[in-house]
């Protein structure tokens, strides 16, 4: 699933703007989200300005990477729309 196509939009001053279109792996690299395999899952290190969030998941890489991206978008605080594998996740909608 590292090569699964994703699309992420966010709202800038009320206007929907394309933030990213590409693969999950490209997004993780682009946003400096690192991961490593642990005994029963994956551990992600999500860096934001001034803080680091460590996320550990016992799920498969597919589910864990989607969760890590959702956490990253949630922490940014902006309204965003994340599409992957025919699913759509609305983050920070009121």
Compile the SSE list and pairings:
Elements lengths: L4 E8 L2 E9 H7 L2 E6 L2 E8 L2 E7 L3 H16 L3 E5 L2 E5 L3
Antiparallel strand pairs: 1-2, 1-6, 3-4, 4-5, 6-7
What attributes does this structure have?
single chain; 94 residues; alpha+beta; 7 strands; 24% helix; globular
C-alpha end-to-end distance: 30 Å
In terms of per-residue confidence, which ranges show pLDDT below 50 for 5 or more consecutive residues?
Answer: none
Averaging pLDDT over every residue, what do you get? 93
Proportion of strand residues = over 45%
Count of spatially separate domains: 1
- What characterizes the major β-sheet? 4 strands, antiparallel
H and E order:
EEHEEEHEE
Q: Tell the overall outline.
A: globular
In order across it, which strands form the biggest sheet?
A: 2-1-6-7
The strand count comes to 7
**What Rg do the Cα atoms give?**
13 Å
Q: What is the share of helical residues? A: 10-25%
Structural class given helices, strands, pairing? alpha+beta
Commentary on this structure:
With 94 residues, this protein is of the alpha+beta class. It has one domain (5-91). 24% of the residues lie in helices and 51% in strands. It contains 2 helices and 7 strands. The protein has helices at residues 24-30, 61-76, and strands spanning 5-12, 15-23, 33-38, 41-48, 51-57, 80-84, 87-91. Strand 4 and strand 5 (51-57) form a beta hairpin. The radius of gyration is 13 Å and the shape is globular. The relative contact order is 0.22. The mean pLDDT is 93.
């Amino acid at each position: 699933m590292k090569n699964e196509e994703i699309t992420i939009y966010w709202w800038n001053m009320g206007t929907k703007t394309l933030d990213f279109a590409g693969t999950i792996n490209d997004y993780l690299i682009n946003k400096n989200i690192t991961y490593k395999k642990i005994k029963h899952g994956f551990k992600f290190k999500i860096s934001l300005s001034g803080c680091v969030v460590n996320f550990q998941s016992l799920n498969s890489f597919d589910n864990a990477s989607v969760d890590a991206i959702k956490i990253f978008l949630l922490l940014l605080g902006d309204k965003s729309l994340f599409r992957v594998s025919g699913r759509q996740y609305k983050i920070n909608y009121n």
